[in-house]
Amino acid sequence: MKFRILLVLSIFFFGSISAQEISNERIKEIIEEYRNLHRGPYLKIEWFCDDGTQRDSKDPCPDKIGGIQHASYKPITIQLQEKNHIFFADILAYTDKGAFWDANHQHSRLKQYQLNNYLESVDNGWIMEKAQYYRGSVQSEDEQEWGKDFYNWLLLSNNRIEENFYLIRQSLQDIPHNEDTKESQTIRSLSKTIAEDNPKFMDARTKIHGQPDKTDIQLVKKFKEENEKDLSAEQKKEIDSLTRAMENFYSPIDLSYFKQEASNFPKGTFLRTQLENFGSQSQDSISNQHLIESAANLMCEIRTELPQVQSTSDQLIALDLSVKLEEIIFKTAPEWKPSSLLEQLDKIYALSLASASAGNVEWWEWNQVDHLLQLDNLNEITLEELNQILAVARSQVEWSAAMVKAIYGDAVEKYNAFEPKASGFIDDRVRSSLALRLGETVSELGNFIREQSKLSNEVFKLNNQSSFRGLNPGYALGKLIVVEDNPESVEVSPENIYIFQKPPSDLKPVAGIATVSEGNLVSHVQLLARNLGIPNSVLSNQNLEDLKKFDGEMVFYAVSEKGMVIMKAEDEMSSEEKALFKEEGERQQEKISVPIERINLQQTSPLNLTEVDAKSSGIICGPKAANLGQLKSMFPNNVVNGVVVPFGIFREHMNLPMPQQDASYWEYLKASFAQAQQMRENNIPETEVQHCTLDRLALLREAIKKMPLVPNFVNDLERSFQTNFGTSIGGVPVFLRSDTNMEDLGNFTGAGLNLTVFNVRDREKIIQGIKDVWASPYTERSFKWRQQYLENPENVFPSILIIPSVDVDYSGVMITKGIINNNPNDLTVAFSRGAGGAVDGQSAEAWLIDLNGEDRLLSPARETFYNRLPQNGGLDKESTSFNHAILSSANIKQLEDFAQNIRKTMPEKTSKENVGPYDVELGFKDNKLWLFQIRPFVENKNAQSSKYLQSLTPEIDTQQKISLQHQI
Q1: Which fold has domain 810-938?
Q2: pLDDT of res. 381
Q3: CA–centroid distance for 587 within its chain
Q4: How far apart are CA 199 and CA 204, in angstroms?
Q5: What pLDDT band is residue 462 in, cutting at 50, 70 and 90?
Q6: Distance CA 514, CA 543 (A)
Q7: Predicted confidence band at 518 (pLDDT cuts at 50, 70, 90)?
Q8: Which of 470, 612, 742, 752 could pair covalently with 563 via S-S, beta carbons 3.0-4.6 A apart?
Q9: So what's the pLDDT on residue 11?
Q10: Segments making up each domain of the chain, as ranges
Q11: Residue (of 96, 114, 118) closest to 167 by Cα position
């Protein structure tokens, strides 16, 4: 389902809505009020008749009408539904099926129902703390009957199943529709509650959450025996409840159940036969390996055959059986202890197949990697091949965790604003899924490979070291800051090393970075880190949790070119590592000087895009316009027309008198940097110098935004619009792209540091947008990056590239090099639906395109919302499912051909030295390729050539062969 949010109306529309919404602070108060009320969020018990009327609890619905009895909601509960779209303590029998599915709000109501269940389980009933004992408020038989009806309605549409398979299957664990219990969630909830009440239980809780198996039963019993005297009666009761739940969960498996359930399916059907075969196996003689492999295959058959099952009731049974099979695999996986490398790889494949069959990855995604995890009757394998399998297997864990975040992230974020405990929901879902078992098994393979390679990550003494994966080489010394919450609200420092759940979209200078979600390889944040030698790596959720204990400590952090990760306390650094940081303990950066000798400030009228080319870069305009002008001449059918506002027009306006100053804008700017230099000569601390400079730049920035434009320039711009776009200013939506002389300098990319005004059409907004773009190089973020890496950051000259908007179906970045394998003949591409997502750091669909071999899916897109560009300007937001790839095989072939054309044509048309690799921004509209930018792909040569970083990964014989019968 799709919904549209017109961004240009958002201030008016959402402003009026928010005025009516109940504040988060008030919701916090309501939650506490509910907790202490015996009726909680409910008003009273009533009869709800089938004709739509309501009656008092003592006045039943007439038999000829019929109805059911349950609680009604308090008025404030209803207000939360209507004003905030927040649903507390939903009574399903009270609810319209379509309203509960809530397709127009990305199924928010269903997700909230699951989230409410979680909060009630981990927080002593949460808002139902006392109301859970309110008799008659909810009738379990009515809830179950509604649940069956809901799924029979929901499963009528195969499109709904295909687009929402993961969500539907997950909801089976929460929406009552049969008699099943939920011991696994009960186990996690009780262990968490006990540990919060008794810190001595924390080690046991960590084991139960991190590596659960049936030995946990004895662990809990032993804890109770050893602490009997110190435990209260309530604590003993909770421990006994936990023990019973674990004993039930790990009780022997009755496979005959599946044979019994098979009778629900028509005779002779494929699923019935497969279920009968599985249920006929002898539980006493079947091995753990065979049980897991059989269960995984049956899960696969269920997901594959589900659309062909005719009856919705049979589809519901099939999905329930799939959940039962997952439970069997989850419980049995720790008992399968591979004795050989081959068996370890078999286990990884079986768990990956089962995880995909559970919906943790989309079916098309699994089809891209299925064959990469299978072995073709081999007796031995090279270390290189084994590493490739490890990378694919690890991706299945990462994609699965990303699926949970993508599906439930919006609901969790909504609740986090008033209930912080909601943040644990996503982790709970991951830990209850096969992604946990797969992650454990993949880590074991990673440990084996590191032993064979004589390589190892060294991140303190943490477990799961193989979960760390380096992205960009570099090293840093700084304070470690672990950020669990929204990274956009964190004020970062260039002295610190940050661990994020997700990388921020606008990263200011930092010493180092590691993220649970890398976004994508070619986002502006990732390119900046790679360009500037900032160590950058990916880690798991558990790794982030483990690193919390080191938060605030000074640490040494290094990432090698081969992806090895080191992190240790400052006092554990070797003498070689200490030698890397001389002169006040900071690594010296080789600063770049921006050439300004050839800059031409005499061009004070706009130019057509066809009037500039690569030779214009840094002279008349920045590299975006210069290169796009070059590309317009090379690929006229793939590049739009455009208008270039050169450096000279900016400089002309900067010569105007600045309000409330006895100087021009330019003189004020020069005086600001002169003052900063004088302060340094007077030994004023650099932080104070920066603070003073930023204050002056903020004043300048605001003044530029209000600057009157020279009338001649506006007239010239009007003529340029008519010439290039066939209309006056305001007649067509355009992008205004900042294009400074401080970008693409060979050693400094500057990607994403300055403003792009998206899809603006209104004449006044275009005029204002020009001034906003001119002001953007003086923002704190842009200035700090330039200040840190450039010798003359004050000599910034912005030009502007104005191009008409193309409402692309999907867009992204192509690097004419294989980033992960360092192969100059390959391509790395990342695409998101709509406009601008990939460069802004969204979790994009990324591919390694091998021009001589097989293309490899590096990561699927995991962004629910994307941008569209309406003709009246602004942005629309639309939503999507993940059940289809963004790029088609035809698109990939177009990218391959286009890359070959660029590699051949660029050196011919520009200079022989311009051989790439290139960073290309482009998009597809109705399968036509549109080219928006090409720039050099800049990597940090210092980090790559560092002798220390090279020493971390000595030469490895990647063709070393290992027997698949090798004992592990």
Answers
A1: D-amino Acid Aminotransferase; Chain A, domain 1 (3.30.470)
A2: 93
A3: 31
A4: 10
A5: confident
A6: 11
A7: low
A8: 470
A9: 37
A10: 7-171, 183-249, 458-579, 607-804, 810-938
A11: 114
